[in-house]
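Much of our argument rests on the idea that a fold can be written as discrete symbols. This step matters because it turns folding into a mapping between discrete strings. The record that follows shows the chain in one-letter code together with its fold in token form.
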Amino acid sequence: MMSDCEYMIQLENVCKSYTLSGRRKLEVLHDVNGEFRRNAWNLLLGASGSGKTTLLNLIGALETADSGCIKYNGKPYDELMRSNSSAAAFRNRKIGFIFQNYQLLPEFTILENVLIPARLAGVPRKKALLRAEELLVGLGLQDRLNHRSVELSGGEQQRAAVARALINDPELILADEPTGNLDSQTGEKLLELFRQLAVDHTIIMITHNESLTACADCVLHLADGRLV
């Protein structure tokens, strides 16, 4: 059995529900218990509507659980994030988000999009600029730095989103169906990048694609709001 230090994220009896119109309660997660290994590619598998995105949002401190405990490196989120500002700082410095729909701001260039998390973290502009350019060049986007997202293919936009997620060198990378909008060849290139990142980052990726289980180091299944 692994010791706590080998897990970056631990879930203990986590519950989450939403109040719908008419005050009807929709229970999404029920007493979820589980662990996500450090410096590994963790795959969270489940059908649409199983609660995957909700669980990822809780781990990413974008939402709060109704009850239960989420731990990061053995420390409860309640201790790490006592205010909205401390939660925002935690997300910015510790977590890199990769969304299925990229979430790039269309009014900014790709380089400017990648710079945003670093500037929010207070990184000096020159240092942040060098880091952003290094990441984008490494991802094959050296000719796209000053282009806007509408001028890029889906694969190029996703690689830019990866660069943005990595700009602050986070320990934890959360990926929500990152290959969902990509063709098979582009998706395979992104999966290879995840294999490389998992050497010294903790990755939690959610998907409904069972064929990806062969790629990951650890696979968890979410069904009807419970890890099974």
Q: What stands out?
A: The two ends are 18 Å apart (CA to CA). The first helix runs from residue 52 to 59.
